[in-house]
Amino acid sequence: MGHTVRRALRHGGSAALLAAALLMGTTACGTPDEHRPLTPDEAQRLALARLSVYERGPASVRLRVPAADTDVGVDAVVDYAAHRALGSYRALGREGRVAWDAAGVSVAPGHGHPGGRGAATRWSTRAYTRDPVDRALRLVLALGSDRPENAQLLAQSGPRWLGERRLRGHTYTLFAGPRPAPHGPGRTAPSEPPVSPVTYWIDETGALGRVEAVLTSGADPVTVDFTGRRSPLPPGPWPAPAGPARP
């Protein structure tokens, strides 16, 4: 990204919301000989992963976006029911607060916990760009859903078993998500479609521990870690909820 990191949280644009659209045309992690189709039980676990995130309440996440000159880090609370997130970011030696929802991104100067005393209120709001940082923020919002996927249809769209890894004292199964569908009129899927650029780390209880996503071909993956903590969404740049009507 070069110097775009400094600008990534400040300038406007637009991008697709769904993870599949965000990641279309990129390449996958892993090596082909590690992959195999999912069993029915594994497809069910993957189909319930985003619902599990949604049902566990506001989630604490840690986002890392690699770049040529620095990594952008974001620690945030995501309320999937409200489709909002708020936290702090670090990039190029600078810190600040960042909030985002379906409409766009808001940034404020300052540091420390966003819900703490003296939280910044001078928010600057803009539309999303196609910068990898913005695409990563939108990906975070897309990782929770109030309904499960259809496991049978999901299994037909090419997810793959990638193996098992240990993370924070837990064992996770790694699944490559559904393959992006071909775009455009007359486009057909290749005989050997690429593996999805999104990898889900799911434990034996169905909890999602990490998501890795390759946003740009040849680049290191963006990492979203679900830390397991549940926290209320701190106050942010959004209008306060209306109080009860007076009699």
UniProtKB/TrEMBL annotation:
Residues 222-247 are annotated as: Disordered. Keywords: Signal. Residues 232-247 have a biased composition (Pro residues). It comes from the Bacteria. The keyword Signal applies. Residues 1-30 form the signal peptide. This is Lipoprotein. It comes from Streptomyces crystallinus. The lineage of its organism: Bacteria, Bacillati, Actinomycetota, Actinomycetes, Kitasatosporales.
